């Protein structure tokens, strides 16, 4: 039997979010019921609630940075117990059978992962995300949050943390590697923290020097303003890896010129507009232009354990549920340092 739970939802594209109720399925034998404590606000929530990435499913309850406590388990659950601290990220299911699911790369499921919100489950019902009091999730898609991280700063790790950890790990950021992070926002600030903890030499490339003090505090060794043309002359051929977190189109030819031969520019930010590229920017230095999408379940758990080991959490501004619409406008204006997190007790 389904249960209605309190949530904040966008009733239509571009409409303000409002308090409502949404259905949650009954707890199945492999499910856990999670009382949500905190939910992060990701820029992708805004893109989807405003139809920026295509037509959405409404009413829409955003939120895929979820941290909470297990309050009920199904009869066959073995991975989690009542009282456990758990998290839920960007997806809640996948086909489980394709080559990528079998490798633990569920984010690249050949049949498409089931998004935590703005998606449809295998029964065809809409999924509703973390701006709500409770959620029911299969145990295999529920993460363990280590004791070393408080739940409020852990919530954004379920998207922002893994989105940066995955490419940094895949392209082997570490001692002896020069890594640049483009943009010091909700994603970028976690990239700086994680790359620094991995042992890389970290540079922030931001539009201005306004956040330079923050960048240094978070672990950046260097900080440059991309609005200054001299930056691209001074840093030409400098980096092994550049991770772009911005959701606006870049001058890719300019940024690719900052890579060493065999360097990679990896995009985790997703602009709504198309981008342009001169292929000679790649050919000249055997450079790579790539993308990366979150991480699979095993890697997301690895990231949470890594963050706990190194004392890493997101820099957050905790808000009430009735401040969500204001927070959306502030995210668009880049007026947050560095992640809004909703206190679910205020729903």
From TrEMBL:
Known cofactor(s): Zn(2+)
A Pfam family per the record: ADH_zinc_N
SMART domains linked to this entry: PKS_ER
The Enoyl reductase (ER) domain, residue ranges: 15-342
EC number: 1.1.1.2
Keyword Oxidoreductase: yes
Position of the signal peptide: none
MF-aspect GO terms: alcohol dehydrogenase (NADP+) activity; zinc ion binding
Keywords of this entry: Metal-binding, Oxidoreductase, Zinc
SUPFAM superfamilies: GroES-like (SSF50129), NAD(P)-binding Rossmann-fold domains (SSF51735)
UniProt entry tagged with the keyword Cell division: no
Annotated catalysed reactions: a primary alcohol + NADP(+) = an aldehyde + NADPH + H(+)
InterPro entries: ADH-like_C (IPR013149), ADH-like_N (IPR013154), ADH_Zn_CS (IPR002328), CAD-like (IPR047109), ER (IPR020843), GroES-like_sf (IPR011032), NAD(P)-bd_dom_sf (IPR036291)
PROSITE patterns the record matches: ADH_ZINC (PS00059)
Family recorded in the similarity comment: Belongs to the zinc-containing alcohol dehydrogenase family.
Protein name (database record): alcohol dehydrogenase (NADP(+))
Species annotation: Streptomyces solincola
């Amino acid at each position: 039997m389904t249960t209605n739970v309190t949530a904040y939802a966008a009733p239509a594209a571009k409409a303000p979010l409002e308090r409502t109720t949404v259905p949650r399925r009954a707890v199945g034998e492999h499910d856990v019921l999670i009382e949500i404590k905190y939910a992060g606000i990701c820029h992708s929530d805004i893109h989807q609630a405003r139809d920026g990435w295509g037509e959405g499913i409404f009413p829409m309850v955003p939120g895929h940075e979820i941290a909470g406590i297990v309050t009920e388990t199904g009869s066959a659950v073995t991975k989690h117990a009542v009282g456990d601290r758990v998290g839920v990220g960007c997806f809640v299911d996948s086909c489980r059978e394709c080559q990528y699911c079998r490798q633990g790369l569920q984010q690249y499921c050949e049949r498409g992962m089931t998004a935590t919100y703005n998606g449809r489950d295998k029964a065809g019902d809409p999924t509703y995300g973390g701006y709500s009091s409770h959620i029911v999730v299969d145990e295999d898609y529920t993460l363990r949050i280590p004791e070393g991280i408080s739940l409020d700063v852990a919530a954004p790790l379920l998207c922002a943390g893994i989105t940066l950890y995955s490419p940094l790990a895949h392209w082997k950021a570490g001692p002896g590697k020069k890594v640049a992070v483009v943009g010091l926002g909700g994603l970028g600030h976690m990239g700086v923290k994680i790359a620094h903890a991995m042992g890389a030499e970290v540079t922030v490339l931001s539009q201005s020097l306004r956040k330079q003090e923050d960048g240094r505090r978070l672990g950046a060794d260097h900080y440059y303003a991309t609005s200054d043309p001299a930056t691209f002359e001074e840093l030409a051929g400098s980096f092994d890896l550049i991770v772009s977190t911005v959701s606006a189109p870049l001058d890719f030819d300019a940024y690719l010129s900052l890579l060493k031969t065999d360097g990679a520019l990896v995009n985790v930010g997703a602009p709504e507009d198309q981008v342009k590229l001169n292929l000679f920017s790649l050919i000249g230095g055997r450079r790579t232009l790539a993308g990366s999408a979150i991480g699979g379940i095993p890697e997301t758990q690895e990231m949470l354990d890594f963050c706990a080991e190194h004392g890493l959490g997101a820099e957050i501004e905790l808000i009430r549920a009735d401040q969500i619409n204001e927070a959306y406008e502030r995210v668009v204006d880049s007026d947050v340092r560095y992640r809004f997190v909703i206190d679910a007790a205020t729903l």
